Structure formats: structure tokens, C-alpha cells
Amino acid sequence: MSKRLEKLREIMKEKGFDALFATSPEAHLYLSGFANPDGCLLVTVNGGAYAFEDFRYIEAAKREINRNDFEVIMPEGPRKEWLGTALSVSCSRVVAYEDATLTCRSLESLKKELPEAELVPAGDILYSLRVSKDESEVECIVKAQRIAEKSFMELLPLINYDCTETFVAAQLEFLMRKNGSEGASFETIAVSGKNSSSPHGVPRNVKLERGFLTLDFGATVGGYHSDMTRTVVIGRADEKMKHLYNTVLDAQLAALEAIKEGESCFKMDKIARDIIYGRGYEGAFGHALGHGVGLEVHEAPALSPRSGDRNLKAGDIVTVEPGIYLEGKYGCRIEDMVYITPGGARNLTDCTKELIEI
């Protein structure tokens, strides 16, 4: 039995669940090792587990899913029949569902299809398992990050004044694909000039404006994401721009120096925020310092003023991404990913942070 299933069943027993019906793509990949956006899993406490895959995926599923962990089935007929049969065979009455992702309509359908089952929300049991990354997960994230870094460095010589923001974003995504990414982690951000003052600005089909060009992007390997941001300058940076850039960099470096297992998520944000606000940019850093990264590009934990008493734990992977955004003028962000290790931390990002002028 895989360690992931073993841990899951331990939690299910504690909560009194007979079975877990998993329907999200992230849960499917995490538990079975097979990516299928339309598949579903049934994991029972008594040891039985079923992977339901339709005709499009059944051959690959049989090849890639560990048959010692899951019985791979191509269901036929209405769901109430094949899911009801599996629940009956496993004597499962209390069935947990993924309440964070299952729609209200789908839940109502389940209730009608499984009248004998007691359907209860699973809460964060899968999410809590996914927060702590094992070595295989870290390896995928590092591979994705190296692809993103390589692509960024290959992009720089291609940027000129005739490029549009949309071209830069598309070219960066193409380079990541060329270098081995399964796809972009999210919609690539490439915003220049006044558009860079929007932290999640949308690339425009206009030529690059002089000033800051912020690039926020990530690659994907094995379903796992990377996330990084670099800000360069189109043209030459004046003294105010250099001061702003160095403030963001100093804030990030201070947080990277302090971050480690056991430190407060709130404190990490405060370290960076105090530097930015202390240099005259109060109110210009409007988002959290960072977030978790894994099968989703935004996961727990958050490095935020609202993190409460959550401390960093070994196995967490978080971004550290301070920024300054001056409305109607420009903005800048620098982002690395950090892996929290026993007693310390390791920066997974290996890419220059010098102020690059193009």
C-alpha cells in the first residue's frame, strides 16, 4: 500500500469515514499517480480502492496506476449502479466527499443516487496531506523550476522594443514547452510600463512600454507547478526605479534569510512588509508575501498578515514574492520558491536577481 493511502486511511478511521469519494483532478493524481481530469476514486477504510476511468483514459490508467493499490474499472451504466455496487461490496455507509470542489448540483445528484449512504464533507483531509511534499514531489517542482529559469534566460535576448506584451507572454510559454514543460502553471503575466502597476495585470497586444517589465510564470512537471517572477527594465532605470527595485530585493532577501522551519508565516510577511513600508512605500504592497505551491499553484500555507498562528513546517514549499505597485506609474515584484527543511530552508530558485536593462 502506498504511504499516501495509508495516511489517508488513518485519518479516515479517526473521523469515522467508511469511504472517500474523490472527484478533483488533484486528488486523483495525488492518490493514484495518474492524471485524469475526468476520473474519480473511491478509497475505503477496509482496504479496497477503485479508480473509475472512462474509455479515453482506461488503457493509460491500467498501465500507470499501481494495481496493488487500486482496482482500475471502466464503469458502464449509471453512476448509481457502479458506485453503489462498490460501496455495497466494501460495506461502506459513511461516505466523505470533497466539499471544497464538488458543486452543489453534483452533491444533490449523489444524494439521489446513493440514498442508503450517509454523505459527509471530507473537509481538508486531502489538502492537509498534500501540504507536506515528499522527495518525489520536490523533484518534480525543481524540474519545473529549472525549465522556467532556462526559458527566462532564453527569452531575454529575444525582447526588443517591437515586441508586444502578448508576444512576450506567448514566447515564454512556447520556450517552457520546448524545454519540457507539460504546460504553463497559469496564464503568464508579462506587463510593462504603467501596466506593471497591476500585480496580476493581463498582457496587452501593444508594444512594450519603457520602464519595468514584470514577468510572472511557471512550468509544470508531473502535474506539479513552479512559480517565479522577475522584473526587468525596458530601456534604462532612473534613480527612483532603482530605489524601488532594490527595496523589493532587500525585502525579499531579508525574508529569505529568516525563513525556516518553525518560523511564523505572519512574521515572514511582516519582515518584508516593514522594509517596504519603512522606505516610503506604505500601502503599495497590497498582497501577501507568499503562498504554497504543489499540484495547485496556490496552496496552503500563506505567508500573510492573516496567517494567524500558523508556523512553517518541514515539507512546505512556499513562494517569497514581495512587490511594490505605484498606481498609474509602474510596479515591480521578485519571486522565489523555498522548500522548508528540518531545521532550515532551501531556496529552489536559481536565477539572477540583478537589475537587467534591455
Annotation keywords:
358 residues, alpha+beta, Creatine Amidinohydrolase, Chain A, domain 1, Creatine Amidinohydrolase, six-stranded mixed sheet, 10 helices, 18 strands, 36% helix, elongated
Order of helices and strands: HEHEEHEHEHEHHHEEEEEHHEEEEEEE
Helix content: 25-40%
Mean pLDDT: 96
- Alpha-carbon Rg, integer: 23 Å
Q: What is the CATH architecture descriptor of the largest domain?
A: Alpha-Beta Complex
Spatial strand order of the main sheet: 4-3-2-1-5-6
The CATH topology annotation of the largest domain reads as Creatine Amidinohydrolase
What is the highest CATH level, the class of the largest domain?
Alpha Beta
Number of strands: 18
Largest sheet: number of strands, sense, barrel closure: 6 strands, mixed
Query: Based on CA inertia axes, which overall geometry fits?
Result: elongated
State the fourth-level CATH superfamily of the largest domain. Creatinase/methionine aminopeptidase superfamily
Q: Total number of helical segments?
A: 10
Amino- and carboxy-terminal Cα gap: 54 Å
User: What structural category do the secondary elements indicate?
Assistant: alpha+beta
Question: How much of the residues is beta strand, in percent?
Answer: 15-25%
* Total number of distinct structural domains: 2
Q: Mind sketching the topology for me?
A:
Layout: H1 3-15, E1 19-22, H2 25-32, E2 40-44, E3 49-52, H3 58-64, E4 71-73, H4 79-89, E5 94-97, H5 104-113, E6 118-121, H6 125-131, H7 135-155, H8 165-178, E7 189-192, E8 211-217, E9 220-221, E10 224-225, E11 228-234, H9 239-258, H10 265-281, E12 290-292, E13 299-303, E14 317-320, E15 323-326, E16 330-333, E17 336-341, E18 344-347
Parallel strand pairs: 1-5, 3-4, 5-6
Antiparallel strand pairs: 1-2, 2-3, 7-8, 8-11, 9-10, 12-13, 14-17, 15-16, 17-18
Helix pairs in contact: 7-8, 9-10
